[in-house]
Structures are given as C-alpha cells and as structure tokens.
Specification:
InterPro entries: ArsR-like_HTH (IPR011991), HTH_MarR-typ (IPR000835), MarR/SlyA-like (IPR039422), WH-like_DNA-bd_sf (IPR036388), WH_DNA-bd_sf (IPR036390). The chain is mainly α. The protein has a single domain, classed as Orthogonal Bundle (Arc Repressor Mutant, subunit A). It is 72% helix and 8% strand. The chain has seven helices and three strands, in the order ααβααββααα. α2 packs across α4 and α3 packs across α4.
Length: 154
C-alpha cells in the first residue's frame, strides 16, 4: 500500500503533537516539583500570567471545581504567588492577581533554560517559517480550546 506524502506528513505531525503534549505534561510535573507546588497550582499560575481573573474563571479555565480552586488560591496566596481582591460591587466575587515579582523570583528561573532551548531550536528558521509555525500553534490552541469545551459539555 502506497501512502501519500500528505498522509505521511499528517501522521508525523499528529504523532509529534501527541508526543509534545506528553512531554509538556512531564515538563510541568518536573517544574512544579522544583518550584514546590503541585501541577494544578502551577497550571493556575500559568493561567494567571494572562492577567487577573475571578476565582470562577480560573476554575473554568483550569477545568476544576470552584471548591478546588479555593484550595489552589489558598495555597498560592500562602506561598506569596497570588493576591485575592474582593469585588466592591459583589463581595462574593474574588479576583485573583499574580504577584509578578514573586513569580519572577521563583518560577521564571525554572523555565528559563527551557525558553533558551526553545529559542535555540528556532534559530535556524526564517521569519516566514516562524510566522507559519506561530500560525500553526495558534490554530492548535484553538483546537485544544474547542475540544476541551466539547468534552466538558458532554
């Protein structure tokens, strides 16, 4: 049976995405251990790097219950990584803000070697190739977001 070049490339890409996903989980676990938090807490810190969000939004984006996110916020606040702020108009609502200086002190150094290695891995690509890769990664993120939403809705 002859496999077309496109079918072979698609199979290679899908396999690479699967493997990268698995390695991403392993990297998060190793990083969380180094930082001294659990992987869910690290995941929430990563989400907060996009900006402040309510506890409910964090729970939704992290895929955990609101009861669980309370524990995450408690641990991260005790460690100095986040700050809680009550909404003046709705006291039930809590906004969580990343304490950037603390994260820069404890979290960033753990990821710095990864970022440097990723930069090195991209050095040989042209600007046009990097644009293509960035577009591809944005599209894969959209697929992840829609598929996670679909799975949670079922």
């Amino acid at each position: 049976m002859v496999v077309s070049r496109r079918a072979d490339l698609m199979a290679r890409l899908l396999d690479a995405l699967r493997r990268n996903g698995a390695w991403s989980v392993s990297m998060s676990q190793a990083a969380a251990e180094r930082i001294g938090v659990n992987t869910t807490d690290l995941h929430c810190l990563n989400l907060l790097s996009d900006g402040p969000m309510t506890a409910g939004e964090m729970a939704r984006r992290a895929g955990i219950t609101t009861a669980s996110v309370t524990g995450v916020i408690d641990r991260l606040e005790a460690a100095g990584y986040v700050r809680r702020e009550r909404d003046d108009s709705d006291r039930r609502k809590v906004t969580v803000t990343l304490q950037v200086q603390r994260a820069a002190q404890d979290v960033a150094p753990v990821f710095r070697p990864f970022v440097q290695a990723w930069r090195g891995a991209m050095d040989d690509y042209t600007d046009e190739q990097l644009e293509l890769i960035a577009t591809f990664l944005s599209r894969t993120q959209e697929v992840f977001q829609s598929e996670v939403a679909r799975m949670r809705a079922e």
